[in-house]
Amino acid sequence: MKFSAFLRAFETLLKERMREFRCPVHLCFGQEEVPEILHEKLRREDWLFSTHRSHGHYLAKGGSAERLLAEIEGREDGINGGFSGSQSFCDPAIRFHSTAIVGGLIAAATGTALALKLQRSNALAICCLGDGAAEQGVFWESLNFASLQKLPVIFVCENNGYSVHAPFADRQCAPLSSRVGAFRIPVAKGGDGLRTILEGRTAPAFVEVPCERIGNHVSAMEDLRDVR
């Protein structure tokens, strides 16, 4: 089965059982492209840092669907013993970390990249983020530091056009990739751009992948994207 189809099936299972879960659950319907490419191109030694919408990234890195489901259900056999839930779990065994804090792991990914450079490692640090995280100062500070220090980090922005219910155009004054280019690192766009960057192990780099958030922002929360 193609990975994106497997991911869609897993998320469908969660959607069908949504009202059973006691933790907030962010599904990644419409955002399967980045996980598909990460599944194809990442190496075992690479580090992957994710967001609150992290199921696809975790499974792409080789994570266990059974342990992830158990974590969301709050069971002891979950990834973190059922304490982290859907949006803030970590699996050090496969070098995967996620967080519920918007932009919360950008600095951690950049620091990991610095450590990899000092260790003369061939591994990369991949930092997945949403377009909302680009409104955090730490994003721009990390871009600057990564550029100056030539760190092995790739920032991958899944731009679904919304921060919760607020459209991108209402929050930011200019396209994201054009502003990132000022930091003198390679900038690519779309799935093909991400594949090229990962295949070339080009870092530091920034990739913006336009995508669509299909469904609610979180769990059964009413979606207000079309309300003005």
Topology:
Elements: H1 3-16, H2 33-41, E1 47-49, H3 55-60, H4 65-73, E2 90-91, E3 96-97, H5 106-118, E4 125-130, H6 137-149, E5 153-159, E6 162-163, E7 166-167, H7 168-171, H8 176-180, E8 187-189, H9 190-200, E9 205-210
Parallel strand pairs: 1-3, 1-4, 4-5, 5-9, 8-9
Antiparallel strand pairs: 2-3, 6-7
Helix pairs in contact: 2-9, 5-6
Task: Explain what the structure shows.
The chain has 228 residues and is α/β, with parallel strands linked by helices. It has a single domain, classed as Thiamin diphosphate (ThDP)-binding fold, Pyr/PP domains (Rossmann fold, 3-Layer(aba) Sandwich). The chain is built from nine helices and nine strands. The chain has helices at 3-16, 33-41, 55-60, 65-73, 106-118, 137-149, 168-171, 176-180, 190-200; strands at residues 47-49, 90-91, 96-97, 125-130, 153-159, 162-163, 166-167, 187-189, 205-210. The strands form two sheets. It has a seven-stranded mixed beta sheet, with helices on both faces. Strands 6-7 form a two-stranded antiparallel sheet. Helix 2 runs parallel beside helix 9 (190-200) and helix 5 (106-118) packs parallel to helix 6 (137-149).
